[in-house]
Design a protein that fits this description.
The protein is 62% helix and 5% strand. The chain has helices spanning 16-39, 64-73, 80-83, 88-107, 117-130, 132-137, 142-151, 156-177, 185-196, 209-239, 247-256; strands at 53-57, 60-63, 242-244.
């Protein structure tokens, strides 16, 4: 399938005079290199692994590295504890949805959706305290947090960017779709009892309902809002240009979005 988006590669051009100097230096070194090549065994050529585009969303390219990054970041999602890591197909679907939302945020210039550094820091501290995998890794300590990040191939900067992005999207969704949605205390208590508590293992330090109630409220809000903006997202996909370039991922994307059809 022909790729409809152009990937711009920035190439640093060497001035002609500098190139001539470099060429002269290379030519002067050739006899020495030839002698070394004759005396040393030829090293096996190492394969070069290049990143590749797997999808294009309104001229925004999603790369294979983005896909792998999304899979690593799924370690920060509480609901992945029992469901395992994201599959590449699930990761791509999340990336497509998020890209469509981010593009809409930028088009509407939704500055009110930008989270403050204090909000990001507060969310990070909350994650380190209550995420089940973090509780087991003792993420409240610097050593435990470092070990958790290393085990999942993450960095503090990447986690902060992830949280900032999530807060921005949640704020935008809340401003646009939350009108009229109310999360009851009974819903929060039910989620705590039936969904969150089973994720902890015997011996884990389990946070109280009061500690995690704001986070549970946010999760439930997302679930309710999903029902409202799924149609909105579907319209964005139909009106936009979403193209999956990887054949295996394309088949999965068509199954996830039967109304969308093949790009």
């Amino acid at each position: 399938m022909a790729m409809r988006a152009k990937i711009r590669l920035e190439i640093a051009l060497i001035p002609w005079c500098a190139a001539a100097v470099c060429l002269a230096a290379v030519c002067a070194a050739l006899p020495v290199q030839a002698a070394q090549a004759a005396s040393e065994p030829q090293a096996a050529a190492s394969p070069v692994v290049l990143d590749r585009a797997v999808a294009v969303v309104n001229k925004h390219v999603i790369l294979e590295s983005d896909l792998q990054d999304e899979i690593r970041l799924s370690a920060l999602e509480p609901n992945r504890e029992t469901g395992g890591r994201l599959t590449p197909q699930q990761a791509l679907e999340q990336l497509i949805r998020r890209t469509l939302i981010e593009q809409q945020i930028h088009q509407e210039d939704a500055l009110a959706a930008l989270p403050s550094q204090e909000e990001v820091n507060a969310r990070l501290q909350e994650l380190r305290k209550v995420l089940p995998a973090c509780v087991r890794a003792n993420c409240t300590t610097d050593a435990g947090w470092k070990a958790f990040l290393a085990a999942h191939g993450l960095t503090p900067q990447r986690v902060e960017t992830y949280l900032r992005n999530r807060l921005e999207i949640l704020s935008f969704i809340e401003l646009r779709f939350r009108q009229g949605i109310q999360i009851s205390q009974q819903e929060i208590a039910t989620y705590y009892r039936d969904t969150l508590l089973p994720q902890y293992k015997p011996g884990d330090t389990i946070p109280s309902l009061e500690q995690v109630a704001p986070r549970i409220q946010e999760i439930l809000l997302q679930q309710h809002v999903n029902e409202l903006f799924n149609n909105w997202l579907q319209n964005l996909r139909q009106e936009g240009d979403v193209e999956v370039l990887d054949p295996a991922l394309e088949a999965a994307d068509a199954q996830n979005n039967p109304e969308q059809g093949s790009p």
